[in-house]
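Milestone 3.1: sequence recovery, worked example.
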């Protein structure tokens, strides 16, 4: 089993909840933030004691809005990580931020604490779309935040964009892409809106109904993003992610390669020793868990579960999956079964096979969910269950 060298830290605080968001967040203020940071540092210590430690290659502050924490709080967390785990000198340390929540001073402080990558939630470059989403910033604040990132000397930053928003047109989308390119990020994440149960959007909109763009329109947005960003020098290295050469997100590659990682904080998931463990999604339950010096546990994933996660994650990458590695990890029976299934005509426009298993671009990526679900169902129907030799 590979050793975990990556850490995800969930920072659940937001000024307001975006209308599309189903993440575990809270709008509580400074007192709870201080309590939470202390609890998170205690979880870092507890995890080190229970699981042992290795110097970390990647750390990711996700949320929520981690940039709502003070410089001192981010520094407190990183100092605790350094003390109990160690951080490699060239580690990628990412922090998610929203426009309007960072300044030159705070960014310089984050950098001094070790943060060397900022992921900025732009989402759209039209004020009326930002309002429609419940975002707490304006377009001008995106530009101001990027200027501050550059002035602070942080040379690796990413922008998030969302396609398929209510009332969003192709012209809006092309304008957002062009403005994003003008800001010269090293990385772009481009997500298609999913109307999740429990969100404000779910109460207002039904998938496929106006004012949401049609499925044909969202496919066109995906293709426009791919063509536009590749022409601007970005490599489309994962279904939703683009990077300039050398700037793929190293932390997220850990997920997509189905490697182990530590996850800490409210609602965070860890993947250690073949087990995925989820922390409580409610603040009081998480704080009680830490107060009791407990960590969540779960059964070891079955062979079928590991297969599904390997397919689900690895086929998102342009490089796909190495077939020899699949054979080694899951056994010759699985290897032969997969090759037999994939030779069927239904997969011919979606997958390509050499020494690797890859989804075709862009066709296979557009139908990735169907491909992976169908492949998993067919493999299970064969009765595959033997352990690898």
């Amino acid at each position: 089993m590979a050793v975990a060298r990556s850490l995800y830290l969930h920072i659940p605080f937001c000024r307001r909840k975006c209308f599309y968001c189903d993440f575990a967040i809270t709008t509580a203020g400074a007192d709870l933030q201080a309590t939470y940071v202390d609890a998170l540092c205690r979880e870092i210590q507890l995890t080190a004691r229970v699981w042992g430690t290795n110097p970390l290659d990647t750390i990711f502050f996700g949320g929520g809005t981690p940039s709502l924490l003070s410089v001192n709080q981010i520094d407190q967390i990183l100092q605790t990580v350094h003390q109990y785990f160690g951080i490699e000198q060239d580690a990628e340390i990412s922090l998610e931020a929203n426009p309007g929540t960072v300044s030159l001073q705070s960014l310089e402080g984050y950098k001094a604490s070790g943060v060397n990558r900022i992921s900025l939630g732009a989402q759209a470059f039209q004020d009326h779309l930002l309002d429609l989403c419940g975002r707490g910033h304006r377009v001008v604040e995106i530009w101001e935040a990027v200027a501050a990132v550059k002035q602070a000397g942080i040379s690796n930053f990413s922008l998030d964009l969302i396609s398929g928003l209510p009332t969003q047109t192709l012209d809006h989308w092309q304008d957002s892409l062009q403005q994003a390119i003008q800001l010269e990020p090293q990385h772009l994440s481009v997500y298609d809106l999913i109307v999740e149960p429990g969100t404000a959007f779910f109460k207002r909109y039904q998938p496929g109904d106006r004012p949401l763009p049609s499925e044909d329109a969202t496919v066109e947005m995906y293709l426009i993003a791919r063509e536009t960003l590749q022409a601007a020098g970005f490599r489309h290295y994962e279904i939703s992610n683009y990077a300039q050469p050398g700037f793929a997100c190293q932390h997220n590659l850990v997920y997509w390669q189905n490697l182990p990682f530590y996850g800490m904080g409210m609602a965070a998931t860890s993947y250690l020793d073949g087990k995925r463990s989820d922390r409580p999604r409610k603040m009081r339950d998480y704080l009680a868990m830490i107060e009791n010096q407990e960590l969540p546990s779960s059964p070891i994933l079955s062979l079928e579960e590991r297969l599904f996660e390997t397919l689900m994650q690895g086929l998102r990458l342009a490089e796909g999956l190495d077939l020899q590695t699949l054979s080694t990890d899951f056994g010759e029976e699985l290897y032969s079964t997969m090759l037999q299934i994939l030779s069927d005509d239904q997969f011919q426009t979606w997958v390509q096979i050499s020494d690797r298993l890859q989804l075709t671009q862009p066709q296979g990526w557009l139908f990735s969910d169907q491909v992976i679900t169908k492949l998993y169902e067919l493999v299970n129907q064969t009765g595959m269950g033997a352990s690898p030799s």
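The first helix runs from residue 30 to 51. Residues 385-389 have pLDDT under 50 and may be disordered.
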